[in-house]
Structure formats: C-alpha cells, structure tokens
Write a structure and sequence with these properties.
By secondary structure, this protein is of the alpha+beta class. It is built from 4 helices and 17 strands. The protein is globular, with a radius of gyration of 30 Å. Keywords: Calcium, Calmodulin-binding, Cell membrane, Cell projection, Cytoplasmic vesicle, Exocytosis, Lipoprotein, Lysosome, Membrane, Metal-binding, Palmitate, Peroxisome, Phosphoprotein, Repeat, Synapse, Transmembrane, Transmembrane helix.
Length: 398
C-alpha cells in the first residue's frame, strides 16, 4: 500500500467519518427533543386546563329568599332530592386564558365605575391590597318575574383571625334597600370557601330590578365581637344583561362603609427571652376616625393576649376625652413562654368610649408571625432585637 500524493490520510478519513456520524446522531436527538417538547408542552397545557376547570355542581346548591317591600315575593326553595343542581353558568364561570382574564378585569372596572354605583366615592384613598375575589351569577326570568342571584365561591381571602384564617360568609343586598338582606352560611376556617347558594327574588318587576344595585359583602364571622368586613362588590343591574344567567369573577374592594382611614397607632414591642415576656407600649395615635356626633372621639386602647383560640389576658389604657391625636405612653407586660411564641397573637383595639351606648370600635391591629406584612415585620423585628423596644406605626383596620 502506498499513499498517493494529495490524497487524504487514513487518520483524516477516520476523523471525518466520526464527525459525520456525530452530526447525524445530533440531528436525530434534536428532532426527538423538539418532539418531546411538543408532547410535554401539550400535556402541560392540558393539565393547566384541567386545573382551571370549575368544579360545577360541587356541594349543595341552596336557594333562599326574603320578602321585599318593593312588591316582590321571596320564597325559600330547596333542590329536588337526588337531583344534582347545575346550570349553564357553572360551565362557563372560570376564566381560562389571559385574554379572558383581561376582558373580565376590564368589565369589572367598567361596572364598578359606571353611573349608579353608590360606593364609588368610598374607594377613593383605599389601599390596593389583595382581598381575594368572589364568583357569582345573576339573571332574570321575565315570565316568572324572578331575579336569581347565585353565590358560588371565593378565592384567596385574607386571614382576619389571629389563627391565620377566616370564617367567611356573604351578605346580599339590593341597594338602596339596606334593611332587608340575605346571608349565606358561614364557612369555618376557609380562605377559599364554596357556598353554591341560590337566592330568588320572586314577583319582582323588571322595571324595579334595573333600578337596584346588587351588593355583595364578604365578612369574617366573629363569635365574640363584631364581624370583620373582608371586602365587597357592587354592580348596577341596569348594566347587566339579565336575559340569561351571567357569571362574574370580581375582585373584592375595601372600604365598603365609606369610612376611609381609621387612623394610625404608634406602639413598641420589647421581647425578653430570658424573662419569657413581651412589653407592649402604646405610645400615641394620630388622625383617628371621629365616632361622635360632635366630630371627635374619646379613645382608649385594649390589648388582648391570645394563645391559639383562647383569650389569655386583657389590658387597657385610660380614656382620652375628645382627642383624635391622643398620647397614651402606657406599657403592659405579658408573660409568654418562648415555646408558645409561634401560637401567640396580640390584638390591639382602639375604642371610642360612649356613656350612653355601646363603645365603638375605631380600628384593630393583629400582631403575630402570620398577620399582615406590616404586622409580621414588626413581630420579626421584635424577635431579632431582644431586650430592645422596637417602635412602628400601624394603620388601623376594620
């Protein structure tokens, strides 16, 4: 064997063959990769659609109603035994794409800002914190002169209780009538409740229905004190096509009572791990809401030490007469073992003293490791800086 001049050597040919085989394998693998990606992408998309599918007919659909002074008759009816309640609205409630989300969001904003909504001014200056959202449907039967409102479920509700959850229920009004209301059942310790309750307003003329505003208020049930409002939704019925059941997802809005800011409270926390104690110093408040007819308040502060679901100890400051910017400078010590710190909540309530009637709540603050962002920050700062008073302003909440 003799190599010809200019011909490739055997080693060169061998390297070329290896490179050719490698390129072929790479092309095949790339093709498989793209095929796998398409398959996996399709499977992932299907799984998302499955997750986004509403749980139609889940739970028991209940129907309730009340008699209205406007001439409408309300009847409390129950579903036929053995029959699973369902309607077209259950199958088209959940938004499934970003386009649908955008349309629903724009529709929500248009309805909330449309003429006839009584609570537009109440939202000015309110915080944009996430209060969750609610799903409901509404429609009108012209033959039977019946307005139907179905409250389905809510999602991502904020925790209002010191235990880190809420006990939500819904009140239904047809504004401007505030005397007559309907209520769903209370869902215990649930931030994503399912109600599936239907409310009928029978014998209610259409010309009067379109003059009303459907108002839904979500509240947290409290056994020992006043129920805490979570958020609300209002829709002028003259802006809704009532010829068929329309289903909505609506973001809950704050400040439904139109009260605006309730004021702020400056307080400090001092944790002493060796003494197993927390000292709460109520320093001062500013811009408190006026609760009395004279445009002022007589504020004092209650401090509750809570462990799990039990009230352990209560302290309170003196009352400051006719003062919306009171200075208290009162300290209270609470014995809290370190091992119980994670299950401990300190509830601070600013009250308005009233001699002739029940004292009014101006606002509350829940301090624990699982409260709101500002409260949690204060709690963690207190633990990170033992034996040092840590002061912070807090916005009072309903």
């Amino acid at each position: 064997y003799r190599e010809l001049p200019g011909a490739p050597t055997r080693d060169v040919l061998l390297v070329s063959a290896i490179i050719t085989v490698s390129l072929s394998v790479t092309v095949v693998l790339c093709g498989l990769c793209h095929w796998c990606q398409r398959k996996l992408g399709k499977r992932y998309k299907n799984s998302l659609e499955t997750v986004g599918t509403p749980d139609s007919g889940r739970g028991r659909s209940e129907k309730k109603a009340i008699k209205l002074p406007a001439g409408g008759k309300a009847v409390n009816t129950a579903p036929v035994p053995g029959q699973t309640p369902h309607d077209e609205s259950d199958r088209r409630t959940e938004p499934r794409s970003s386009v649908s989300d955008l349309v629903n969001s724009l529709t929500s904003e248009m309805l909330m800002l449309s003429p006839g909504s009584e609570d537009d001014e109440a939202h000015e200056g309110c915080s944009r914190e996430n209060l969750g959202r609610i799903q409901f449907s509404v429609g009108y039967n012209f033959q039977e002169s019946t307005l139907t409102v179905k409250v389905m479920k809510a999602q991502e509700l904020p925790a209002k209780d010191f235990s880190g959850t809420s006990d939500p229920f819904v009140k239904i009004y047809l504004l401007p009538d505030k005397k007559h209301k309907l209520e769903t059942k209370v869902k215990r310790k649930n931030l994503n409740p399912h109600w599936n309750e239907t409310f009928l307003f029978e014998g209610f003329p259409y010309e009067k229905v379109v003059q009303r505003v459907l108002y839904l208020q979500v509240l947290d049930y409290d056994r020992f004190s006043r129920n805490d409002p979570i958020g609300e939704v209002s829709i002028p019925l003259n802006k809704v096509d009532l010829t068929q059941m329309q289903t909505f997802w609506k973001d809950l809005k704050p400040c439904s009572d139109g009260s605006g800011s309730r004021g702020e409270l400056l307080l400090s926390l001092c944790y002493n791990p060796s003494a197993n104690s927390i000292i709460v110093n109520i320093i001062k408040a500013r811009n408190l809401k006026a609760m009395d007819i004279g445009g002022t308040s007589d504020p004092y502060v209650k401090v509750w030490l809570m462990y799990k679901d039990k009230r352990v100890e209560k302290k309170k400051t003196v009352t400051m007469k006719r003062n919306l910017n009171p200075i208290f400078n009162e300290s209270f010590a609470f014995d809290i073992p370190t091992e119980k710190l994670r299950e401990t909540t300190i509830i601070i309530t600013v009250m308005d003293k009233d001699k002739l009637s029940r004292n009014d709540v101006i606002g509350k603050i829940y301090l624990s490791w699982k409260s709101g962002p500002g409260e949690v920050k204060h709690w963690k700062d207190m633990i990170a800086r033992p034996r040092q008073p840590v002061a912070q302003w807090h916005q009072l909440k309903a």
